[in-house]
Amino acid sequence: MERREFLQRCAAISAASCLTPYLRDLLAAEPDTADRTISAVEVRKVSGPTENVAGVNRQHQVQPLHLYSPPREYRDADAPTRTQGRTSRLFLRVRTKGGLEGIYGAIDDDALPFLLGPLRRVVLGQDALAVEALWDRMYRADRLGRSGRYMKGISYLDNALWDLRGRHFNAPVYQLLGGPARDPVRAYGSCLGYSVQPDAVAKRCVEMKELGFTSQKWFFAYGPADGRAGLQRNVELVRVLRESLGGDVELLFDAFQGWDLQYALAWAQEAESFHPSWLEEAFPVADLESFIQFSQRTSIPVATGEHFANRWEVQQFLKAHALQYVQADPEWCGGVSELVKICHLASVHGVKVVPHGHNVHAALHVVASQSPAVCPQVEYLFLHMPSKLLFQKDPPIARNGVISLPQSPGFGIELDENKFDDQEDISEL
Questions:
Q1: Cis peptide before 184 (omega within 30 of 0)
Q2: N or C: fewer beta carbons within 10 Å in the chain?
């Protein structure tokens, strides 16, 4: 029996009693569920000018395919070139019959066939406030959709629906989730793209520390195909950072699935004395056994989960004691709804959750709603996040190593028409 029907029956039964005015007030405040029915799932493409800088901040990171053909040594150019160009960003919008609206972005175009195809068909006509039912419907709609770009589409839709709920209740998403647990939220500086040449590293890491980033993540450029010399360069990166920054900065390292167990153990043996705070995703996420073995044979904490697709994958790692940090990304693992469940799982096992930062909005709100004992900080891709937030008004920018929480309803995403000059609806495949 729906709530409105229940209240109507109660009112009829209690018409002569003192409860009637109270029930009438409840009925008056109860919105018509038809107004919450999802009527449209749309994607908007926004384009505008941007500045391109060539010759710097293009350091490659080690990747699985480098086993076959490692790239050439990288060094920043002495004189970078600046040119004016154009770029585009995509934003997902969900609307209801009653005029409610939710927005999320920027999103990636590889999810569009699922967003604008099967997932749109699943959610149209459904109650936009039915959080669990909508997620479950989307997940059950495709027997092969438990991961990959289909799950990415679920993530974007779930996030847009959380924004809609926030706007409906006139509250930020972190408040709907039970927060805030603190404001501002600590952010670690993710240094993807910065040169790993020792002289450049020594200079850049100190600049980052002066900007307030007392937790920094650096990306290895070398793997097994680079031999012993590459291994020594990876150890040298850790040494230079520790000697340049001292002992009060957390040093995080990312190998992006580019290593194997023997290589990781060889690196750890030489790097442990510099006290890295974690080694991230040294192996493909399917290689659970290597994560288990590495966790058992080194004191360096293990982080992974950027490519976790759901809570069931996380649970396998937790049960195997294969990691100390879960990095599930709310744009890839099922959205805010799934990331919150992952936080609950991790808390039972004494494991922390530091979401991967493909974007900042959803991760920031979930982290802000959780205990710092579970979610101590968020990732902030120092070079890439400003570009993702390019066309947004008052986006959440990390300053002095922290991000202040937005006070606007939902995620607080609002497009700034002064920053772009063209837009189009690309909602039809």
A1: yes
A2: N
